[in-house]
């Protein structure tokens, strides 16, 4: 089909984050050595596909995940703020490893509405920017394939939107592992099907041992 187009949403690889900071949009968080291996595996899984357009979040970990694929394809990369990590008011804290921090009264107003969520960028706003970026990537790669490297919550929120699911969810149940690929295949502007792959699955146990994210 000449107007059949696939947009692959890739989550970045493991980040070097020994202090387990919720880094969000903070600068200078780079892939770990394991994360770079993940990026290579994901690039290898995509390099033979008909990819004509590459897009990355401007954050370092996303650009570093994209780098092996861009090099293999000999293509430039468009940086797009719309696929950046979700905003989070707990950025810079270590709430993942020390959730008791949230018991402090100053955090209580941020925990009132998990369906929005009240502690960060609303899910509906994430959907708006991610779907706009997907549509632009689809148009740029019309009849071919595009890759967008983004982050777990934006990718998962976009997936739930495309699958017609409610946006609020249990973060522990996200199907969006490190360096995973969520693929959206369209005919024209209509979504035909969605698929999911984990090219770096063999490395995930190592990431789990050190709490990599």
UniProtKB/TrEMBL annotation:
SMART domains: PGAM. GO terms for cellular component: cytoplasm. Coiled coil: none annotated. It comes from the Bacteria. InterPro entries: His_Pase_superF_clade-1, His_PPase_superfam, PGM_Phosphatase. One of its GO terms (molecular function) is phosphatase activity. This is Fructose-2,6-bisphosphatase. It comes from Luteipulveratus mongoliensis.
């Amino acid at each position: 089909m000449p107007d059949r187009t696939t947009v692959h949403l890739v989550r970045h690889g493991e980040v070097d984050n020994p202090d387990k900071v919720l880094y969000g949009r903070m600068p200078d968080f780079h892939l770990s050595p394991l994360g770079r291996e993940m990026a290579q595996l994901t690039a290898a899984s995509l390099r033979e596909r008909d990819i004509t357009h590459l897009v990355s979040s401007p954050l370092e970990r996303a650009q570093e995940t994209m780098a092996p694929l861009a090099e293999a394809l000999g293509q430039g990369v468009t940086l797009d703020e719309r696929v950046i990590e979700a905003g989070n008011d707990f950025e810079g804290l270590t709430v993942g490893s020390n959730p008791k921090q949230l018991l402090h009264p100053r955090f209580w107003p941020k925990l009132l509405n998990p369906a929005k969520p009240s502690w960060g960028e609303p899910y509906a706003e994430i959907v708006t920017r991610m779907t706009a970026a997907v549509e632009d990537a689809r148009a740029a790669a019309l009849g071919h394939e595009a890759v967008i490297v983004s982050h777990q919550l934006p990718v998962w929120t976009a997936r739930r939107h495309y699958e017609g699911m409610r946006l609020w969810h249990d973060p522990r149940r996200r199907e969006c592992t490190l360096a995973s690929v969520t693929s959206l295949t369209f005919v024209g502007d209509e979504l035909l099907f969605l698929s999911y792959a984990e090219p770096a699955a063999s490395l995930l146990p190592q990431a789990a041992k050190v709490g990599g994210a």
